[in-house]
Design brief:
The complex is a heterotrimer of chains A (166), B (480) and C (583). With 480 residues, chain B is of the alpha/beta class. Chain B has 17 helices and 13 strands. In chain C, strand 13 and strand 14 form a beta hairpin. Chain C has 583 residues and is α+β, with helices and mostly antiparallel strands. Classes of the chains: A alpha+beta (166), B alpha/beta (480), C alpha+beta (583).
Chain lengths: 166, 480, 583
Amino acid sequence: MSFTVPQELEKEIDERITHYPVSKRSAVLPILHALQHHFGYLSEEAVEWTAAKLELQPIKVLEVVTFYPGFRQEAPGKYHIRVCRTLSCAMAGSYELMEALCEKGEIDRSAVSHHHPIAVGKDGKFSIEFAECLASCGFGPVCMVNDEFHENVTPDKVEDLLSKYE
Amino acid sequence: MSEPTYKAGKQPHANEYRLIFRNIDREGWDTSIDTYLNEGGYGELKKALGMEPGQVTNEVKASGLRGRGGAGFPTGVKWTFIPPNNTKPVYLICNADESEPGTFKDRYILHQDPHQLLEGLIIACFAVGAHLAYIYIREEFPEAAQIVEKAISEAKAKGFLGKDIQGSGFDLEVYVHRGAGAYICGEETGLIESLEGKRPYPRIKPPYFPAAMGLYMCPTIVNNVETLCHVKHIVKMGGEEYAKLGTPRNTGTRILCVSGDVRKPGYFEVEVGKITMGQLINDMCGGLKEGRKIKAVIPGGSSAKVLRGDEKYTIGKGDDAKELSLLEIPMDFDTLMACGSMAGSGGVIVIDDSRSISWVLNNINNFYAHESCGQCTPCREGSLWMKKISDRIVAGTASPEDVDTLDSVARNIDGRTICAFGEACSWPTESFVAKFRDELTADTKADLSGTLLNPESKLAAAHLKSQQEAQKTEAKPVAV
Amino acid sequence: MPPAATDEKKPTAETPAVPMVNVQIDGQWYQFPKGTRMIEACRQVGKDVPHYCYHPKLTSPGNCRMCLVEMGMPPRLAPGQEPEKDGEGHQPIQWIPRPAIACANTVAENMGIRTDSELTRGCRHGVMELLLINHPLDCPICDQAGECRLQEFSVEHGTGGSRFREQKVKKPKNVDIGPRIRLDDERCIMCSRCVRFTDEIADDPVLGFTERGSHTVLAVHPGHELANNYSLNTVDICPVGALTSNDFRFQMRVWFLKETKSICTDCGRGCNTLIGSREGRVYRQTPRENNDVNSAWMCDHGRLNFHYLDSELRLSAPLVKDEGVHKESTWPKAIQRAATALKAHGGSEIAVVVSSRMTNEELFMAKRLIDTLGAEHVATVPRAGEPDAYLIAADKNPNTQGARLILGLEGDLAAGLDSVRRGVADGRIKAVVTLQEDLLTPEAGFDAQTLDGLEALVVLHLLANPTAQMASVVLPGAGFAEKRGSMINVTGRLQRLNKATEPFGQSLDDWEILRDLIQAIGGGNGIYLIEDVFKQLAAGVEEFEGLTLSKIGDLGVPLIETGETVPLLERERERIAKGQIVG
């Protein structure tokens, strides 16, 4: 499978690079965001492409990719869910929320590990992972589905929530 | 300007003083520049552009404004740390990486009032002589990034950004830079490294103080979202007048975020120090749930040291000394510090008596072990060790000595790391052990004392044997 | 010996332009130039501060935290307040509860440092315990054992036991990260020395850290490798067993190695080295710091170019050819045979090909031989190659400067060699002595047919080679690790080789062979020791006047001006000037 960045996307990336007139290396994060947004995750080719674009050794890009949980190196589901597990949300029931989401979304988390934090449901529709504090501690439990944010998601609201994503 | 009305269920509490959050949850308010301009928006920028940059800094100094990101350092003083003989470009970065657990204030400014932030930021840039600024927004706020980018282009179209702003001769470009999910990027120098496209490893200070050697090794001012918003109001009111808000040395307003075991958690903008912990929890948050008592409060984000509900706190010295209960503590920087904790980022987490302290501490330790950047030894190794010990306390497979070990690991991190994350990750453990040792110990098992759970030595012996055997089979026969 | 305390008023720096500051270290006052790193100040007074990440040639990230020390400054004065001073003019020190890293901080006026206080010791205990919790404790089978900083500092600063009861973090082991290096990520302590070396010195930023927190691992990008010609320096500076050399790992426990200070003879740079040997065998070469030659580095090619010393082709005894067949002989017989063969020719019929890989002492003896024989044809084999932007010199011979000085060669060396070649080809030259040069290599350019026409061919060499095969007498010489002597590098610096091992088999030190040969041809020469050779050299060649082998010292002495600079050192000086590194 060859890795091709569409012209439109590359144009957007080139524009982003201009935001960093002093050092284009600064554009690593924006480029990775753009590629992940388009491809769903960051493949080895995406890392190499970014490195070539910024004239860096690919390891210097991989260093960044693997540091941030916001970057994925494996394909997620069509809808990627992030459940906050930090204190206030945990007190409000985020572990119960995770259970309910896995049950209703038919996702098996048993193979999740430190290096593979994301579990993908069997039809590939949903994927899920725990995230650290999403900064809405007063309204937990909270989660994100792709870029959309949801507050006060008690387990009884899970069915409604998932039904919004088809 | 009309008196704002607020959305149903989102009305500010009577104890609040809404300066920064004036437009949050406001009826009929949106993020467009026209809405902002209708309310006199960018008026303070025009005023500031008519002043000398140094004068703006002096007003901020006079206001006594202290950073709202967590450290509480005087903002105006920070600005003057740029070397006077500097010839390099100056940069300003707005820290919108809001990630201290328990804190949820900047999110509303970014999502609902981006122009307020921009106005404050442009004024700050003018004051410090920055012509390029970045707003570092955490990845988990994707919508905010779009909203702020739209606000930037609107402001540019109206001549509040770009070349020769409002005919003043002052140029400024602002860009949004999105993070990717790392607490450490809230640390100034980690954020700068991240913005340079590297792993966000905090820098050693000295020598890398951002005001002298920051972004691209140039003077850089890093300010929190809320802090920059205050700058706009300081210009409006004048530093001296602003300083009348709040209490001496703890001036202005700040946003307190309450979460955990209260009936009505939420965000409240109050004059600093004018509200006590009791007013905040009982009056503004509706108190605790039926039949519950306060076991503990973490007053300034999860890295702040925990305070016990039933403890007495002595503040002041000599004749001025007085004893306060937890609920009598005024929510200001200095008193909370005197009580052994900190105001931090304003995130108040209330823990009632239904909670297991071991579970709470374990959750916090989990967070810091996950967020440690791994650059320096004590934090990299210690944060995960603390998590593993508290895992066992929760699981009931720890011995009483493990509580001592936990505490001593924290003390081997505290004060010995490159950045303040060392304290952030060790203070919870230190304070939980100090205040709740009995409860933690109660979750351990005395009969595990001295038990070696680690099969390390057995493994090492087995490994050595297998290596020797492998070597035997690999050895080539000697030619005769 | 610690430098002078303040009361002797003896400055510790040579450059008086830098102002001095008074610093108290463990209760004693000293003076240091402003800008001195705390760790270096302590080292200078014999108070070594343990460290992992700090390396004077690299930037200081301050990440290992092993060099934390208790530090104090004079009290802050209120406006108008006069500082309080003791009889010696020092202010009291206010000790700071938060420890400071000694590696990146510089000394300041009236600073206090405690390298042995309770706080400092506590920091070291803490850091040592933390470094070891996830580190494998299989030291007996670790190749770094014996030169591992974790081991060393555990003894000095550790607690002896661990309270760690958890499962260790699992990481990749035995990772192939390049042609010459292997990585064990579980042993890595993330000090980043190797990353900084590849980024800052070798300009080949292929190493990096991936993952984060306790799970951080050192890595190369998939499909890429650490393969630059300076890669093995990362193995040297790795303070633990994370990076090991494929060539050396598990060959020999390091505590059995004898370390001999010498120089690399792979090119004209003459990088200073330590030769690690045991029982007559060289196991490794590592760079030795010399800030006028190679800083603290050397290239992989030079470092690994010693295995020929154990080559199967190594000559073990003198050979003489009878009826077309080489037979082992004794030294006196072989020398006599060579002398007889050479004496049969007049000087105009004899050529001596001398190697610029020989030491000055050997060259001096070669010159004697030339003079004794009256040989009119003398040449060396020039080896011009590509220099790099670091250490490798264009001249692949290690002692061209010495050869020119001692043999009195001038002008184009290639032309000199060409003239010998032509002389052999047209039959004017009937006898050839070749010293440490195989004449049938492309660079020497002789061909077997013309050599075949010679009446006498005497070869002194290490290895059985095609020229030796044609020789009437073969005299087995010594390798660079088997001898003492000196060479002059491309910048004109005179440096010493030292003997790490005995010459192989019956082979002898080249100067001894030459001495005996000269004696057999022309009679006594009063030379018994290599010191005698050098004495005569110093008397005979102006540039060496007043020198002895021992005066050269471990770091060599500048001897002549060649105008050559070392690109790597130029950059290092820039970094020092900018304060980026200590140097």
